[in-house]
């Protein structure tokens, strides 16, 4: 079939395209920015349409060019009005997709008795499904927590279990949920293009539901960890969601709907899926965890939950595979050679351009702790060689006029790096400054997030100072 995939830059869509091509389908993708898919292995085998579900005029050509479509988009990250945006997007899709013979939509399992008022996210997901089914021949799949390398649910379980040897948790962790491996979600999505599933709703997941507590304990068993999890008789979903946003890389915009969605049991009923998809037998939860860990360790993560967060922002913080990265981007009205000269001359007698007193204080404290402090200075005011020292940093890699990466040698509970890249862009340069920290154990994570407000200010002012220095005549 000629199939259109919306959400092709997202976690599910980015993996689904390759599976559809393997099945022999002729695939098109609808994206807001075509540059975000050009690096994918399948990019030269699909037709790429640029459009936006909020702009119905951009949907006419891609929807009239195909027989069927996958609806894999949401507006969860858009803020408080995400439900209205999702409603409008679904209505636009229906109005322009009247020639479609099949639509497959991925939503979420609902609690028994209907959608709770506490979860606007689940309510919106269900509403989108209703709009699609009423207007188009739609098959709706409803999934619980999706477990796979790079998935939001897996990252939430992984970070909570890895970083907290003991935790007091609200009572909702005892609610039943029905997780499912990403490989099985993709199998259902591909199979749902069959002829016999029109206008049906299927709950999909493992054979036996399990509590969120059992999910964390199961992860701990796979990793060989000993964890104590004590539920207490409180609900506090908003507070718990913000705690998840603090401990894990999942931002509050995603953590809150994830938690609010499981304050009631969401086990669903998979009997209909077993009847209509007998060839698909979802793998057990612990096996899904093992596969996700193997993929992560081997750096074989195809897509990640953050892939759909939108265009690159001037600032972003990413907590991925145990390494926290603060990335700052600035456009500089200067050539790359001048930008490189600015950041490659930091330290030593020149200092750090911003908050020099704070850098000196940090150096003094490091000296008291037995570290090198700032007393080593630098060999040359502007030249940099790999392996040499710059204050309490070691030059790990240098490629003039493109890149400089420093590895921290000060006393910290983990490993830290500071890197600059100068990328030619139009008549100037895109400066990318990345501060990375790999915490060691709980105290390493506590150290990083404890001083995060200070680091955020200092590193933001640092990149701005480098820009100002580079733009001087």
Number of helices: 15
Q: Count every beta strand, where a strand is a DSSP E run of 2 or more residues.
A: 20
The major sheet is characterized as: 7 strands, parallel
Structural class: alpha/beta
Q: Portion of residues in helices?
A: 25-40%
The spatial strand order of the largest sheet comes to 3-2-1-4-5-6-11
Q: Distance N terminus to C terminus?
A: 59 Å
Mean pLDDT: 87
Instruction: Give the overall silhouette.
Output: globular
Based on CA atoms alone, the radius of gyration comes out at: 25 Å
Uncertain runs are: none
* Strand percent estimate: 15-25%
Main features:
473 residues; alpha/beta; 7-stranded parallel β-sheet
Outline the structure in words.
With 473 residues, this protein is of the alpha/beta class. It is built from 15 helices and 20 strands. It has helices at 11-22, 60-64, 82-96, 120-135, 152-163, 182-191, 212-223, 237-247, 252-260, 271-276, 285-297, 336-344, 356-368, 441-450, 452-470; strands spanning 2-6, 26-31, 47-50, 68-71, 102-108, 138-143, 146-147, 166-170, 176-177, 180-181, 201-204, 210-211, 228-232, 315-320, 323-332, 389-390, 393-399, 403-408, 414-425, 428-439. The strands form 5 sheets. The protein has a 7-stranded parallel β-sheet, sandwiched between helices. Helix 1 (11-22) crosses helix 6 and helix 3 packs parallel to helix 4 (120-135). The mean pLDDT is 87.
């Amino acid at each position: 079939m000629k199939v259109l995939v919306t959400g092709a830059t997202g976690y599910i869509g980015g993996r689904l395209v390759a599976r559809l091509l393997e099945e022999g389908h002729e695939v098109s993708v609808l994206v807001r920015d075509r540059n975000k898919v050009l690096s994918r292995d399948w990019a030269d085998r699909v037709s790429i349409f640029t459009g936006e579900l909020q702009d119905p005029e951009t949907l006419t050509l891609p929807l009239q060019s195909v027989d069927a479509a996958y609806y894999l988009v949401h507006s969860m990250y858009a803020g408080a009005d995400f439900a209205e945006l999702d409603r409008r997007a679904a209505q636009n899709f229906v109005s322009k997709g009247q020639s479609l013979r099949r639509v497959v939509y991925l939503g979420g399992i609902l609690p028994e008795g209907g959608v709770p008022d506490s979860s606007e996210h689940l309510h919106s997901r269900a509403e989108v499904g209703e709009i699609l089914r009423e207007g188009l021949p739609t098959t709706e799949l409803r999934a619980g927590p999706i477990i796979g390398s790079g998935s939001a649910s897996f990252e939430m379980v992984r970070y909570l279990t890895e970083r907290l040897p003991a935790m007091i948790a609200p009572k909702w962790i005892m609610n039943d949920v029905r997780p499912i491996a990403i490989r099985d979600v993709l199998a259902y999505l591909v199979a749902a293009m069959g002829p016999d599933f029109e206008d049906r709703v299927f709950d999909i997941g493992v054979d036996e539901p399990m509590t969120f507590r059992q999910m964390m304990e199961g992860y701990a068993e796979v990793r060989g960890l000993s964890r104590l999890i004590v539920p207490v008789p409180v609900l506090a979903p908003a507070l718990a969601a913000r705690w998840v946003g603090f401990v894990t890389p999942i931002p509050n915009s995603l953590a809150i709907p994830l938690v609010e969605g499981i304050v009631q049991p969401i086990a669903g009923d998979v009997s209909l899926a077993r009847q209509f998809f007998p060839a698909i037998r979802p793998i057990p939860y612990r096996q899904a965890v093992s596969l996700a860990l193997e993929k992560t360790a081997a750096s074989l993560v195809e897509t990640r939950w953050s892939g759909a967060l939108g265009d690159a922002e001037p600032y972003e913080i990413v907590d991925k595979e145990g390494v926290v990265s603060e990335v700052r981007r600035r456009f500089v009205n200067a050539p790359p050679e001048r930008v490189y000269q600015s950041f490659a001359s930091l330290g030593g007698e020149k200092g750090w351009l911003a908050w020099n007193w704070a850098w000196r204080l940090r150096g003094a404290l490091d000296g008291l702790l037995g570290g090198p402090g700032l007393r080593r200075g630098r060999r040359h005011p502007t030249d940099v060689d790999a392996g040499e020292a710059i204050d309490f940093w070691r030059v790990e890699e240098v490629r003039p006029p493109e890149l400089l990466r420093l590895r921290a040698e000060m006393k910290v509970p983990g490993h830290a790096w500071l890197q600059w890249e100068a990328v030619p862009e139009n008549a100037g340069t895109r400066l990318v400054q990345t501060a990375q920290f790999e915490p060691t154990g709980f105290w390493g994570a506590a150290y990083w997030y404890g001083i995060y407000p200070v680091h955020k200010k200092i590193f933001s002012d640092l990149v701005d100072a480098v820009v100002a220095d580079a733009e001087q005549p």
